[in-house]
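Query structure, 322 tokens:
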């Protein structure tokens, strides 16, 4: 989908967004000390429903080949999988429940294919470089729940970097870096998938670095509340966040730099959803299009002041940080 142009919001639009934001119930938010308020620990929606532990205390298994990786990803029961070096995948590889997949060092890389979290629960994917995928890099679908995608780096893929759809729920996407890519993150499969998606697609996106990418940061359908906070957007070509088709998105304390269209409602043929914008920081950027109300959040979280997000995120996002 090609990004469509959107008019610069009027003074009235911005004022309306500010008034609406005051009506949104939220958990306690802390701006923190001079050091980052946020840690690298799990936060957001993936803490709910019992939390997300992946393979837990299972004995780690180190893999260096595609066949070994595919075998353990598809196996039954908990597993902690350590990826070493560069592994080339073909197509999408299934990830079953109760798995932790983590790269060793800063160079662990999956090329050519992606990970398909399909009908699975309790999965953690961390510290991996995804390159040149032919479909999606990470696809979370078909009712998958309690998923944490953290500290990965994505570039030069074909379709979505992290797509979440078809009734999936309770997901956190945190501290990732995206560059040299077009369609970054889709949330919600289609406008006609409401029967499966209403009441689900609850996702938190925080401390991600969108570095010159083009669109879908994220593009949201049906999910409410979706929480987008403390992300750094630099040089976005198309748009930042889009709320569409019954969605409710809280866009909070993000840093937008050289981004003409930081957020808006509606996209393509999808009608406008609700979007509340609160305490964001803008440098040489538009002010966005916000309106409507968003459901309250059930979790507490620590948020950095928006003006500090650039330094915090560039210093902590991507591989090699954990």
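Result returned for the query:
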């Amino acid at each position: 989908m090609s990004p469509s142009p959107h008019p610069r919001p009027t003074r009235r639009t911005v004022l309306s967004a500010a008034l609406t934001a005051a009506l949104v119930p939220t958990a306690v938010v802390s701006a923190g000390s001079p050091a980052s308020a946020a840690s690298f620990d799990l936060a957001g929606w993936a803490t709910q429903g019992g939390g997300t532990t992946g393979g837990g205390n299972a004995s780690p298994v180190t893999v260096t080949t595609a066949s070994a990786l595919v075998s353990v990803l598809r196996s039954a029961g908990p597993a902690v999988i350590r990826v070493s070096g560069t592994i080339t995948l073909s197509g999408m590889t299934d990830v079953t429940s109760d798995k932790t997949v983590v790269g060793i060092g800063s160079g662990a890389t999956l090329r050519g294919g992606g990970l398909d979290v399909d009908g699975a629960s309790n999965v953690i994917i961390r510290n991996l470089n995804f390159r040149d995928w032919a479909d999606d890099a990470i696809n979370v679908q078909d009712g998958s729940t309690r998923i944490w995608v953290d500290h990965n780096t994505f570039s030069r893929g074909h379709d979505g970097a992290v797509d979440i759809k078809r009734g999936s729920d309770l997901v956190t996407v945190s501290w990732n870096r995206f560059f040299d890519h077009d369609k970054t993150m889709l949330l919600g499969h289609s406008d006609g998938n409401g029967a499966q998606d209403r009441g689900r697609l609850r996702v938190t996106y925080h401390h991600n670095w969108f570095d010159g990418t083009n669109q879908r940061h994220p593009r949201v359908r049906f999910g409410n509340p979706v929480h987008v906070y403390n992300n750094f957007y630099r040089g976005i070509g198309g748009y930042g966040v889009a709320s569409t088709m019954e969605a409710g998105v809280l866009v909070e304390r993000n840093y937008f730099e050289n981004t003409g269209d930081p957020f808006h409602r509606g996209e393509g043929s999808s009608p406008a959803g609700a979007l509340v914008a609160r305490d964001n920081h803008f440098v040489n950027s538009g002010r966005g299009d916000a309106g409507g109300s968003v459901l309250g959040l059930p979790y507490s979280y620590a948020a950095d002041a928006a003006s500090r997000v650039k330094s915090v995120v560039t210093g902590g996002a991507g591989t090699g940080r954990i």
